Automatic annotation (TrEMBL):
This is Cysteine desulfuration protein SufE. InterPro entries: Fe-S_metab-assoc_dom (IPR003808). It comes from the Bacteria. Belongs to the SufE family. Residues 16-138 form the Fe-S metabolism associated domain.
Amino acid sequence: MTSVELPEQLAEIRNEFLELEEKDRLLLLLEFANELPALPARFEDHPDLLERVVECQSPVYIFVEVDEAGAVHLHATAPRESPTTRGFVSIIAQGVEGLTVEQALAVPDDYPSSLGITRAVSPLRMRGMTAMLARTKRQLRALAAA
């Protein structure tokens, strides 16, 4: 998939990172961490609906749903004391928000590495972000098959 084919919000996020000097990209990641929305109240009584992303060092939980109009929504939680991880999950959540299932499944698996932060964060953290995207896609495939 070429960058031209990326859904608009994912291309915008990537471009925001690439327009910054490498040293400033972590600051943008922290901004994304602060933008991760709280889980909807309906999850408070059903934490079992959330799937743990075990590849992440921090406890990250996600739940993907598709509304009646076919739009994707990713709900996630990550600890405030793990801002890098929160930033990653916020990017994925904002990036897939409102996409069709087909658009979300077409996001390149290596999208996280296109943000230009691979030298600023550890390979383990990059694997965590890649795993978040992979879990999102796996949940979407399961929903589409149901």
